[in-house]
């Protein structure tokens, strides 16, 4: 007998909860903000809206389903199951934070603060949750398959991201490495820079777009479902030992970009989740390309 679906509600701590964790009480938090010319009232109102949204979505889960909750900070320790329907209750970025831990499960994005969030990935309201859950669990549910990017190191570590993967120094030092197409004969071009960014069409509204605009790139940005990635080297430094001839490009399905580390340490992380990063040391290499896994975003 097959298991009933499980609704997994993903959320993150609100600004108000973070203030309480830092200052201990509502009064202390209010004093801290008021001493800087700010009021805690709007922070509390956003907190209340988020908590009410979580209650509304939880109430919309069918009684025959199982359900669970996971906070953003615990995603790397949570075990998602194949029959899960993932409901992200929060901001667009929370969908991206969640995507790397999934493997084909449908995702419903619920916007807790319409008008404040862009709503690119959290496209729905709490009142739509019941219908969306039934649709996601059914055979005919509509979903977009959003392209993801992956990094695979030479010791088989793997990292997924929905928006972008960043490779670079852990602090403000210069990263040194060799860069070239995967499978190319030779070690690739030696470079010194502040890092490399490889992004998807979903990420084309954020960091990737900033670099694209800065370079006045003539390459079109990919669409979220398009199997195409763009990559940029950030602030490449020309010197007698390092070059700048490979600072941007695109990757299609089956194509890869290989980076070989030539400095003490480089970190690789996706979608801003720096706490859950790969660490590579001198001599290691990593391949970047389109992931086999995509994000199933319920429409």
Structure summary, number of beta strands:
18
Unreliable spans are: none
Roughly how many Å apart are the termini? Answer: 29 Å
| Mean pLDDT over all positions | 94
Tally of DSSP helical segments: 6
Rg, rounded, reads 21 Å
| Morphology call | globular
Strand order in the sheet with the most strands: 2-1-3-4-18-5
The topology string of helices and strands comes to EHHHEEHEHEEEEEEEHEEEEEEE
**What is the percentage of strand-forming residues?**
25-35%
Instruction: Look at the helices and sheets and give the structural class.
Output: alpha+beta
- Largest beta sheet, briefly? 6 strands, mixed
Describe the structure.
The longest helix is centred in the first third of the chain and has 20 residues, at 41-60. It contains six helices and 18 strands. The protein is globular and about 65 Å long. A hairpin with a 7-residue loop joins β15 (265-270) and β16 (278-281). It has a six-stranded mixed sheet with strand order 2-1-3-4-18-5, sandwiched between helices. It is 21% helix and 32% strand. With 299 residues, the chain is an alpha+beta fold. The mean pLDDT is 94.
Task: Summarize this entry quickly.
With 299 residues, this protein is α+β, with helices and mostly antiparallel strands. 21% of the residues lie in helices and 32% in strands.
Layout of helices and strands:
Blueprint (H helix, E strand, L loop, with lengths): L5 E6 L3 H9 L2 H9 L6 H20 L5 E6 L12 E7 L1 H8 L6 E6 L17 H9 L5 E4 L2 E5 L4 E4 L2 E5 L6 E7 L7 E5 L2 E4 L7 H8 L13 E6 L14 E5 L3 E6 L3 E6 L7 E4 L3 E6 L4 E4 L1
Parallel strand pairs: 1-2, 1-3, 3-4, 4-18
Antiparallel strand pairs: 5-18, 6-7, 6-17, 8-11, 8-15, 9-10, 9-14, 11-12, 12-13, 14-17, 15-16
Helix pairs in contact: 1-2
């Amino acid at each position: 007998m097959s298991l009933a679906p499980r609704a997994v509600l993903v959320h993150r701590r609100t600004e108000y909860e973070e203030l309480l964790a830092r200052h201990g009480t509502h009064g202390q938090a209010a004093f801290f903000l008021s001493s800087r010319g700010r009021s805690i009232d709007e922070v509390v109102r956003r907190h209340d809206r988020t908590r009410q949204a979580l209650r509304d979505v939880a109430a919309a889960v069918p009684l025959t389903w199982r359900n669970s909750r996971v906070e953003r900070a615990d995603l790397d320790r949570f075990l998602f199951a194949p029959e899960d329907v993932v409901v992200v209750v929060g901001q667009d970025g929370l969908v991206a934070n969640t995507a790397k831990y999934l493997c084909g499960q449908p995702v419903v994005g619920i916007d807790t603060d319409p008008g404040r969030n862009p709503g690119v990935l959290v496209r729905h309201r709490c009142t739509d949750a019941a219908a969306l859950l039934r649709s996601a669990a059914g055979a005919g549910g509509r979903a977009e398959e959003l392209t993801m990017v992956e990094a695979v190191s030479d010791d088989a570590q793997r990292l997924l991201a929905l928006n972008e993967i960043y490779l670079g120094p852990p602090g403000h030092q210069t990263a040194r490495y060799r860069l070239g197409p995967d499978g190319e004969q030779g070690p690739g071009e030696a470079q010194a820079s502040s890092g490399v960014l490889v992004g998807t069409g979903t990420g084309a509204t954020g960091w990737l777009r900033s670099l694209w605009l800065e370079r006045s790139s003539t390459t079109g940005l990919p669409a979220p479902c398009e199997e195409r990635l763009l990559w940029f080297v950030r602030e490449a430094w020309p010197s007698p030992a390092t070059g700048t001839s490979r600072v941007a490009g695109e990757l299609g399905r089956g194509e890869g970009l290989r980076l070989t580390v030539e400095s003490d340490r480089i970190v690789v992380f996706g979608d801003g989740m720096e706490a859950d990063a790969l660490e590579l040391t001198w001599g290691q290499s990593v391949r970047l390309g389109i992931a086999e896994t995509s994000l199933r975003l319920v429409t």
